[in-house]
Amino acid sequence: MEAYERIKKSIIEGDYAPGTRLTEENLAKELQISRTPIREAIKRLETERLISPLKRGVIVSEFNREDIWQIYNLRALLEGYAAAEAAVNRSAEDIEAMERCNEQFKDLLENPTYGRTEMLNEITELNNQFHSAVYNASHNEHLRFHITSVTVLPLVFRSFYWYNEYQLKKSLELHQTILCAIQANEPDRAKTAMQEHIYQGRDHVLKNINNES
Amino acid sequence: MEAYERIKKSIIEGDYAPGTRLTEENLAKELQISRTPIREAIKRLETERLISPLKRGVIVSEFNREDIWQIYNLRALLEGYAAAEAAVNRSAEDIEAMERCNEQFKDLLENPTYGRTEMLNEITELNNQFHSAVYNASHNEHLRFHITSVTVLPLVFRSFYWYNEYQLKKSLELHQTILCAIQANEPDRAKTAMQEHIYQGRDHVLKNINNES
DNA sequence: AGTTGATTTATTGTATACAAAGTGCTACGA
DNA sequence: TCGTAGCACTTTGTATACAATAAATCAACT
């Protein structure tokens, strides 16, 4: 794994908390490589806005409630559009991919064999996979780019860790609604269901996050 | 001006045509600096998708009709949303900034003192300024980021160079409609007017561009 | 002639030394 | 005690040498 991916992973997994100062030299020492690839990784993470310039150097980006509001609303706009486009452009394989995600999601909810943390990691992964399957089904590379770009940021909130069983079930249901609408070539229904799903996520994060960030 | 800006400018102004191969060493020689800042600029332009990796190295990105379609539709989605948000969040200064752009635009159309090329450069600049004024008025940093990101790409088409006097007048009128709607706190009207404006730009580019790219 | 393998060449990847510049600290003066 | 100027230190910016590797060329064999 290259430097960029390693640092990104550390940020998303919370090893480098928001506000943490990152210097090239420290990272170089930590990852046991020279400053050159570190520089590259930092520049890239900066354009993705996972880190922000501060004085001489950078810090892991911090997001306040206003940021969360704006980011989730943008997600709703873009992923809602993607769902609508998917309802028009989806292939049979796209449908299958989405079905697989939802089936695994369902299995996991019905047979909670792991510990809670492992299960929520799995859920997070499956949720991401479903969303990917939807925007991939839109067959729109530019749209895909913007969605992935706006979606990395909420990852740092690790929102699924606050979900209870009822909320997870509600998520699955909306996934299924979205899938049905896409399968039935109903762009507008797909869009509204997706937006509803994301707005629920937004409100959930806003309700649970510490008031200041 | 740093390396990144110089290369970006060269791409947007067409000095490096789409498909042109760019190598670190050539750029370093051309800009009279070492490869290090060139590397950085290339990486950044790559994440902005102005250049694309190809074999060992990169080329200036090429866009086909499908790309143009997708990019302009995304612009309509994002800038339409920005216009609606601006209608809710705009301050008095935001309104003034938009008014200034449109007044200058109008002056320019009524008093075409320059040569055609200089005038169209000026028009392009004023058009960009108006659009910036609108999304700045939305007071949404994340939205701003995505709009600027999706908007750099159409710049390489230099679409205004194909506009005739009537079309420029129509552009100005829509700008004024957008401004009125934002001033009157009519988010939906602002959105539809902005979308209409961008769709007209899209169709204009698609009509005039060489069929293959 | 076409295909495969080895050799050469072009180009990027990495490390490191040094230059430049911003930050903060300390000491001095008001 | 507060402010400020100068200095030291931390950190990034740049250049350059060398390593790694992908691509292209060419030759040999089928």
TrEMBL record, chains A, B:
User: Boundaries of each HTH gntR-type domain copy?
Assistant: 1-63
Q: Under the GO molecular function aspect, what terms does this record hold?
A: DNA binding; DNA-binding transcription factor activity
Identify the SMART domains for this entry: FCD (SM00895), HTH_GNTR (SM00345)
**Which keywords does this Swiss-Prot/TrEMBL entry list?**
DNA-binding, Transcription, Transcription regulation
CDD domains given in the database record: WHTH_GntR
| InterPro entries (alphabetical) | GntR_C, TF_FadR/GntR_C, Tscrpt_reg_HTH_GntR, WH-like_DNA-bd_sf, WH_DNA-bd_sf
- Pfam families linked: FCD, GntR
Q: What is this protein called?
A: DNA-binding transcriptional regulator, GntR family
